[in-house]
Please model this.
Amino acid sequence: MFELSQKPDLPNGFQYLMPVISTQKAWSLFDFLRLNINWQQPSIQVYGKFHPIPRLQCYIADSGLNYQYSALNLLPDAWNEPLFAMRQRLQTAFKQPFNAVLLNYYRNGLDCMGWHSDDEPELGDHPTIVSVSLGAARKFAIKDRETASQWQLYLEHGSALVMTGMSQQLYVHSLPKQRKVGEGRINLTFRNIVNK
Ligand SMILES: O=C(O)CCC(=O)C(=O)O
Ligand SMILES: [Fe+2]
Model:
C-alpha cells in the first residue's frame, strides 16, 4: 500500500517508508496538531533530580489504556478526527490494531529524545510501532545493544519508520539534538497496548 522510495540500509526490524502522506496533507496535519493538541512537558526523575522532558508530548488512546512510559503514567486524551482517520488507514495497511498514539513535538533542533527502546510490557513481546514524521527532517539513530554499531537516517516530512520483530529487544534508538535545525517537527508513534 505504501511506497518504499528510499531504502537506507537498516538493521532487521526497521523499515523506512517514504512517502506515506503527500507533502501538502502532511503540512495541514502538522498545523492542525500544533494548534489543537494539548501539548505537555512533564518532568521525569533522572538520578534523583526532576527535569522537564526536552520536547512536548501528548498521549492519545482508546479510553482506559494507561501507558507507563519513561517513568510517567500517561492518561490518554481522546482521538481527534485526523488521527482517528490515520489510525484506521494504518490498521488496514498493517493488518493489526493500533489503539494508541504517542505524539512528540520537537520545537526546534534543541529538543530531542535520548537512547531508549519501546519495550514496555504493555506493548507485548514483538510490537509493531509505526512512527510518522511531519515538519523538519531530523536525524534518527539506531544502536545495536550488543555491538554498539550505529545507523543513522533522516526522517523526512511525510515519511514513516516501521519498527517490528526484535527491533526493541536488540536495538536502542534516539533522536539526537541538531543545533542548526530551527524548525519544528511532530512525530506520531502508533502503538497497540495489550492487556497485561
Ligand atoms: O521522534 C522520533 O522519531 C522518535 C520517537 C520515539 O522514539 C518514541 O516516541 O518512542
Ligand atoms: Fe521510541
About this structure: Residues 14-39+53-191 form a domain with the Jelly Rolls fold (CATH 2.60.120.590).
